[in-house]
Amino acid sequence: MYTRQLNNQQARKIQASQTGGATVIRFPQPAQTASHPRSLSEQLQRNPGALSQPALCRDWITAELEKALADDRFELYYQPLFDIQSQQTVGAEALVRLRAENGELISPDRFIPLTEELGFIVPLGRWILIEACQQLKLWQQQNGGPLRMAVNVSPVQLCDPEFVSTVRTAVESAGIAYSDLELEITEGHVVRYQQQVEQAFNELSALGVSIAIDDFGTGYSALAYLARMPWSRVKIDRSFLTDVPHQQKSRQVVLSILAMAEQLDLEVTAEGIETEAQYRFLVEAGCKTGQGFGYARPQPAAAFQRLLQANDNAGWSCGVQD
Q1: pLDDT digits over 162-179, tens only?
Q2: Residue range 73-314, CATH number
Q3: Which of 6, 28, 37, 226 has its CA 20 to 30 A from that of 88?
Q4: Could you tell me the pTM of the whole model?
Q5: Which helix (H) or strand (E) is 81 found in, with range?
Q6: CB under 8 Å, gap of 24 or more: what pairs does 241-245 form?
Q7: Mind listing the pLDDT tens digit for each residue in 57-71?
């Protein structure tokens, strides 16, 4: 079970069991004291600013996670991936959001680390994969053109012995090709969880799933892993584009990553494209794929469909100026 990868403190916080093939998550309960109301919502009503307190914020998000999947309150937003030369949308990266009971939309940086600690990332990740693959199939049917879906995965998911089976189920139940799915993992996790990453990704790559290393250059930059594992793509972290094209060193770093990827027969996606100058630099550098606010922000599925229709009818222009 994936709980073996957690430390002793984390393991005490979660109990997981297999019931009919499904993982059952039992969440830690906030301590009840005379000064701590039995209901987190009651405490928030008394003190709306209480979420600035880390301990209470953690308790609140834990309580939200416990109910959100059953209540269908997780939402997927999709950030378009675009062909830099043609400026056409070629895919999407699925990004999860949590809709709190009070209506607040919670960004993943506030709850994903907690889901990993609690082990909840396993059932949540299963839902994300199935939902994203189903949505991709719908877009393919509506628009006719080729599209791919990128989904971030956690090392905790890779420690789950059912992970490969989960991916197979998601792809085959949606009726998409394995090559339409791309799984992303951050560079730092590759080094820390090398055995789990290598085993799972070797199996999935053999099926045709594309494997991407995310935030490239920000972790350990262990180049040996690029040759050892079945990568299909590297994603240049947005931090390297911040000073492009104005600073020579930043330009050289991006050009070096592109040259290395070409030698290793890897595709490249540049993240964080926000200005016309960055976009033009990448065009001249020969980068194939990009994403960033200069093209489109993460958006709900309906808005993404409208973007696809705009591509078909009138093309797209990256109009963000410096």
Answers
A1: 999 999 999 999 999 999
A2: 3.20.20.450
A3: 226
A4: 0.81
A5: strand 74-83
A6: 241/270, 241/271, 241/272, 241/273, 241/274, 241/278, 241/292, 242/272, 244/277, 244/278, 244/281, 245/277, 245/278, 245/280, 245/281
A7: 778 788 888 889 889
